[in-house]
Amino acid sequence: REAILRQAQKMEAVGQLTGGLAHDFNNLLTVIVGGIEGIRRAPQDSERIARYAGLVLEAAQRGAKLTQQLLAFSRRQALQPKVIDVNALLTDFQPLMARAAGEAVELCVAPAFEPACVRLDPSQFESAILNLVVNARDAMPNGGSVTIEVQRVDLRAGNVAKADPGPYVVVSVTDTGEGMPADVLERVFEPFFTTKEVGKGTGLGLSQVYGFVRQSGGQVRLDSVVARGTRVRLYLPAETEARPEAERPAAAQAEGGH
Ligand code: ADP
Fold first, then answer.
1. Which amino acids bring their CB within 6 angstroms of ligand 1?
2. What SS3 state is found at 203?
3. Which of 56, 148, 214, 238 shows its CA 20 to 30 Å from the CA of 37?
4. Residue to substitute in 178, 206, 209, 222 for testing ligand 1 pocket (most ligand atoms within 8 angstroms of CB)
């Protein structure tokens, strides 16, 4: 009986993984299709075509990276977290996020004033942020704004995680969308929970975000007010070592992943 249960749990994990990847690919395809539509709408505008082609290429390259991750997983290689500055990563990632947000949504990225280094898997982080931006867009069918803000906070006296009081890098994604009633808010992190119509939502976006942030030693906070908007905050343990990975001694690098 236990073996059957274990097998069922394994199947569930595999289902969640493949579903999560399908969800990520779907987000990337949204960018690719949107980019190609943009090109077709302005066949004479070479500057616009170059800009859209750049976005399509970037999304396709990220898709290729995701496939590599899947291959790495099937070979049972753990993903290797790296020390990254969230400010720089989000700034580089802004054009792709803007494309995912769509033209009706104003995207604002506000980096922290000081370096915001964390140790995590950069592609997983990008997938998580893209999931949050797509959710924000879907919550604002008539347009609105989504603000991504990075802050460094010290929670020595705080209540986020008593075992690890900080410092944290907080990435918040705030939209001015329709918000969520309490019964939805309660269930958003459940895999496959979605209020979107068939074909639009898989219910895996926020469970990917949650799983990834927990794996990185962080916490997710969610506040939402119906008809006002939603704020998702990712508390990620700050890396006190501000030096980039390449400059670290080899031994320190090797002990990294779990
Ligand atoms: P999906 O987006 O595929 O439905 P998620 O796990 O990302 O899956 O989200 C689950 C549900 O949570 C959504 O269907 C939606 O009802 C709600 N939700 C998530 N993000 C937001 C948001 N920013 N504003 C309003 N509702 C949201």
1. 131, 135-136, 139, 175, 177-180, 184, 188, 193-196, 201-207, 230
2. coil
3. 148
4. 206
Count CB neighbours of 227 within 10 A.
Answer: 8
Amino acid at 79: L
**ipTM confidence:** 0.99
CB-CB contact of 220 with 210 (8 Å):
yes
Query: Does the reported pTM lie above 0.90?
Result: no
**Where do runs of H (alpha helix) occur along the chain?**
2-41, 46-74, 86-101, 122-138, 182-185, 205-215, 250-254
Please give the Cα distance from 78 to 99 (Å, whole number): 31
For atom 11 of ligand 1, the residue with the nearest CA is 194
Model confidence pLDDT, tens digit, residues 36-79? 999 999 889 999 999 999 999 999 988 887 777 666 555 544 56
In this predicted model, what pLDDT tens digit does every residue of 79-109 receive, in sequence order? Answer: 679 999 999 999 999 988 898 898 899 999 9
- At 161 the three-state DSSP class reads coil
Task: Tell which one of 135, 190, 231 to mutate to probe ligand 1, the residue whose CB is within 8 A of the most ligand atoms.
Answer: 135
Give the tokens for residue 53.
């082609």
